[in-house]
């Protein structure tokens, strides 16, 4: 169905002619071999650089001029030099079809090289020492841009070796090999896109290549035939080809072994391969109708005739022991109902089964070499591939390669595009579109249907469409009295670009020379693009001195440099506006006018250092500040640049928010008429004040130190450089506080840069004693001080004998002698001290009541009258008989009972203290 586009106003229309396609005119293959088909017959080329056993690919432009060629690993340009980025592609010269080249639709500068690696089993076995170019890389593609490398082309670095998935990523065995060695390409039914087809195990993968690029999600077709991975690499070998009419696909599987075990004679197992034929849907990419043509052979090459009526195949022959017996060339008639039984042997020889390739002369060429001589410098040809049986006129070693040597491979092409189609030129609305046939066959009659109800019987047909849109064009040819299959292609008739219809005045400020009134300046012509294309940034714009120059420059290679200095005031130039990759264009006129410039010198913009010598500047806010500061007219727009030259030419504008070091910004001001003025200002990164957090300061709960002064750690000379704001509201350089807390100070310099520091203040309180725990009458005689906030204090004991303990941070004392002592608790922050008395009891272990004046009495040590005035001591003998009740304030027990001396022995005591404590123990009386 035809889609109609809006017919737009045409100011000028012109088209660039094209001619017949010869993309497959030049071949490079084998060891330095090459052929040129431009003359109609193959002519040997001796300047090729390939050294490949199998895989290779070549491509020319539509005129038959070489563009580049490859073995799947290295890419050579048309001067036979390796492209700068043309090494390291992931194909392999020992892969059957290591590469195929596909043009990007509607872009004459971009080509895709699809590469297929050799899936070598030694790269995935357990022995890393036998690897050969690991890993197995499968199917990948790389993009060649012919505009790179001074027009010689190069691989685009960001689009090199892009992997395409043709295996089950969850199957460890699939991942080892990834793909077979087969690849072909077919034109899509839309006449514009392509299908790139490969095969692995039991699945065909069809990848669509369109104007949007390569769709990495393939169309998958699962077949009944499943090629075992156990027999790789042999099972991966063999060609995959599509018919020129795009309706058939044939595949040659050299082997279908389940393992690589040798036969009984120690040779490779043979005669396990097969050949299958399938239908192909060029609209959906689906493969169907699997037909077995030949089984239990070792096939290699395969090819269709130009009319898609015959299929040819080569296979290697082996005897029962596995010894090579040469090869055969087979023909199948695709018009027969039983295609498999239409097989005819065309030739058998002692040559290996090489590749078969259809050329633009509609002959099929065969590579290969003799079993006794692999250096033969010739290839063979099928002169009449459409003829039945031996009438196809196969001639062995017909084509002389001169210095080149044929091996196994020949370069594959998209035969459905290059050999079996028609093309057209002049696809702009209002033009007479030219339709022509690509093939070189002798045509009796033709019938064109242009898709809008019009037809023609002219071989070279011309037709003018009434409206823009898509049209399905069909061609029926009669050749040698035979009606050929109908060809279809959807073409697009384009409107010319819509552009401004009146001359556009491009105004520049005259600032680039000493005479600001001479009307001469350097212009950036690209600045006019948006206006003259009415905002359509998909258009391409080229500038010329005259309209005739614009019309004559069909490839747009002689246009003016967009950075252009006018030669006379108000010079007129012509802009040629076209859609990318289309011949349709329009012409617009621009006038170059240089005006005197207004000086714009605003205040500098200061911002604070972010810590690395850079600051963040809001340029959009600055524009508004400049307009207000200088009272600029309302229609003036400001643009900022890094250099005066960029500002003059409107190049590399800087805008929004930028983070940068201090630098100069150049201003370009424009109004409705163009350039209004220029100037500059500085972006200044201001240093940020440095403040260090203060150490903690102490205020006392009572006494003289109940306040503290906080002040910044700044040199005295800088105090006046800042404003101050304390968290308590003070705005002076220092502040006096009397409360505990974390105070902050924020200082700000004259540029608005701030810094904040912390000032912790802690309140130190007087000691508050909760209790003194005394664990006496034991070996430790432990004293434990319980005080609030114990970590704020130090502790010391003033003993009864006048001595002092060492000052300690812990409130626990051990081994304290019995007696009446004084505990001293002192603030570590100097905020006061307290002292309190306490007693530690100590019972003597023995006494000697012999009236010698020493130890004549037994009594407790450490009992003080004011504290323990009501304490009572009881003394018992070993049988529990109470011998004495006494006060700790007397002399003690003299060792008698009813005035009679008691014998030397152990005696027991119990002391009951007024504070409720009770202690028991024993001591000895010695005589």
Explain this structure to me?
With 927 residues, this protein is mainly beta. The chain has 7 helices and 68 strands. A 7-stranded antiparallel sheet has the order 18-19-20-21-22-23-24, with no helix packed on it. Strands 1, 31, 32, 34, 35 and 36 form a 6-stranded antiparallel sheet that branches. A hairpin with a 5-residue loop joins strand 5 and strand 6 (66-70). The radius of gyration is 51 Å and the shape is elongated.
Q: Can you summarize this structure?
A:
The protein is mostly beta strands and 927 residues long. The protein is built from 7 helices and 68 strands.
Q: Provide the gyration radius in Å.
A: 51 Å
Estimate percent helicity.
under 10%
Give the class from helix and strand content and strand pairing: mainly beta
Q: How would you classify the quaternary structure?
A: single chain
**Total helix count?**
7
Based on CA inertia axes, which overall geometry fits?
elongated
Regions with little confidence, pLDDT below 50 for 5+ residues: 1-20
Overall pLDDT: 90
List how many beta strands DSSP finds: 68
- What is the makeup of the main sheet? 7 strands, antiparallel
Strands of the largest sheet, in order across it? Answer: 18-19-20-21-22-23-24
> Termini distance?
138 Å
Question: What percentage of amino acids are in beta strands?
Answer: 35-45%
């Amino acid at each position: 169905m035809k889609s109609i586009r809006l017919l737009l106003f045409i100011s000028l229309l012109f088209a660039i002619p094209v001619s017949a396609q010869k993309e497959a005119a030049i071949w490079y293959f084998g060891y330095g071999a090459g052929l040129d088909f431009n003359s109609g017959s193959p002519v040997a080329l001796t300047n090729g650089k390939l050294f490949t056993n199998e895989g290779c690919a070549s491509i020319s432009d539509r005129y038959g001029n070489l563009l580049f060629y490859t073995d799947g690993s290295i890419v050579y340009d048309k001067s036979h030099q390796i492209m700068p980025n043309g090494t390291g592609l992931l194909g392999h010269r020992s892969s059957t079809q290591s590469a195929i080249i596909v043009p990007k639709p509607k872009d004459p500068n971009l080509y895709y090289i699809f590469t297929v690696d050799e899936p070598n089993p030694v790269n995935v076995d357990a022995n890393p020492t036998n690897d050969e170019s690991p890993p197995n890389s499968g199917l990948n593609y790389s993009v060649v841009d012919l505009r790179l490398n001074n027009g010689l082309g190069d691989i685009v670095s960001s689009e090199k070796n892009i992997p395409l998935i043709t295996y089950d990523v969850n199957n460890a065995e699939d991942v080892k090999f990834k793909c077979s060695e087969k690849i072909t390409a077919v034109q899509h039914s839309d006449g514009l896109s392509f299908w790139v087809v490969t095969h692995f195990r039991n699945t065909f993968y069809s990848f669509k290549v369109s104007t949007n690029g390569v769709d990495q999600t393939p169309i998958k077709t699962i077949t009944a035939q499943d090629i075992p991975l156990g027999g790789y690499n042999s099972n991966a070998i063999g060609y995959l080809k599509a018919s020129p009419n795009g309706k058939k696909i044939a595949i040659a599987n050299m082997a279908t072994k389940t393992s690589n075990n040798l036969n009984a004679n120690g040779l490779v197992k043979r005669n396990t391969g097969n050949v299958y034929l399938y239908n192909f849907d060029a609209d959906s990419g689906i493969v169907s109708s699997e037909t077995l043509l030949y089984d239990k052979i070792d096939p290699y090459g395969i090819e269709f005739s130009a009319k898609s009526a015959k299929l040819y195949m080569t296979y290697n022959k082996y005897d029962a022991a596995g010894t090579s017996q040469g090869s055969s060339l087979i023909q199948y008639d695709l018009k027969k109902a039983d295609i498999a039984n239409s097989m005819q042997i065309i030739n058998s020889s002692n040559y290996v089964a090489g590749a078969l390739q259809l050329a633009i002369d509609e002959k099929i060429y065969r590579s290969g070499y003799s079993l006794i001589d692999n250096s033969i410098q010739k290839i063979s040809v099928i002169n009449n591939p459409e003829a039945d049986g031996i009438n196809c006129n196969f001639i062995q070693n017909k084509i002389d390669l001169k210095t080149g040597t044929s091996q196994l491979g020949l370069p594959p092409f998209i035969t459905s595009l290059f050999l079996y189609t028609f093309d057209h030129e002049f696809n702009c609305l209002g033009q007479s579109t030219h339709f022509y046939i690509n093939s070189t066959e002798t045509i009796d009659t033709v019938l064109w249907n242009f898709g809008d109800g019009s037809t023609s019987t002219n071989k070279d047909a011309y037709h003018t469409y009434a409206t823009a849109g898509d049209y399905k064009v069909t061609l029926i040819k009669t050749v040698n009295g035979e009606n050929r299959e109908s060809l279809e292609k959807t073409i697009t008739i384009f409107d010319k670009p819509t552009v401004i219809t009146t001359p556009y005045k491009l105004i520049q400020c005259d600032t680039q020379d000493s005479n600001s009134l001479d009307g001469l300046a350097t212009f950036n012509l690209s600045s006019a693009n948006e206006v003259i294309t009415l905002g359509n940034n998909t258009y391409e714009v080229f500038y010329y001195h005259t309209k005739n120059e614009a019309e004559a420059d069909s490839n747009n290679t002689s246009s003016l440099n967009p950075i252009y200095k006018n030669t006379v005031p108000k010079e007129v130039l012509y802009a040629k506006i076209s859609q990318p990759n289309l011949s349709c264009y329009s012409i617009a006129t621009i006038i170059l006018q240089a005006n005197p410039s207004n000086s714009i010198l605003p205040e500098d913009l200061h911002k604070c250092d972010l810590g690395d010598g850079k600051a963040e500047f809001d340029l959009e806010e600055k524009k508004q500040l400049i307009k207000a500061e200088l009272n600029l007219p309302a229609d003036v727009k400001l643009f900022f640049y890094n250099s005066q030259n960029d500002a003059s030419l409107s190049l590399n504008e800087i805008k929004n928010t930028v983070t940068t070091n201090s630098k100069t910004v150049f201003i370009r001001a424009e109004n409705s008429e163009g350039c209004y003025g220029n100037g500059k200002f500085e972006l200044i990164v201001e240093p940020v004040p440095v403040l260090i957090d203060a150490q903690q300061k102490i205020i006392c709960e009572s006494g003289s130190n109940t306040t503290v002064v906080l002040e910044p750690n700044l040199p005295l000379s800088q105090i006046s450089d800042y404003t101050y704001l304390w968290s308590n509201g003070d705005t002076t350089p220092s502040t006096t506080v009397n409360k505990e807390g974390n105070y902050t100070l924020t200082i700000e310099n004259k540029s608005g840069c701030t810094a904040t520091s912390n000032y912790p203040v802690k309140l130190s309180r007087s000691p508050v004693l909760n209790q003194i725990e005394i664990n006496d009458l034991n070996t430790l005689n432990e004293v434990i001080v319980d005080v609030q906030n114990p970590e704020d204090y130090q502790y010391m004991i003033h003993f009864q004998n006048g001595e002092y303990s060492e000052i300690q941070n812990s409130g626990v004392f051990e081994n304290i002698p019995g007696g009446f002592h004084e505990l001293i608790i002192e603030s570590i922050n100097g905020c006061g001290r307290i002292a309190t008395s306490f007693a530690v009891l100590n019972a003597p272990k023995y006494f000697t009541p012999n009236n010698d004046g020493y130890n004549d009495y037994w009594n407790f040590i450490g009992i003080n009258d004011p504290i323990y005035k009501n304490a009572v001591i009881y003394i018992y003998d070993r049988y529990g008989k109470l011998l004495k009740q006494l006060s700790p304030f007397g002399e003690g027990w003299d060792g008698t009972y009813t005035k009679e001396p008691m014998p030397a022995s152990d005696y027991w005591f119990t002391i009951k203290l007024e504070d409720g404590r009770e202690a028991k123990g024993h001591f000895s009386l010695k005589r």
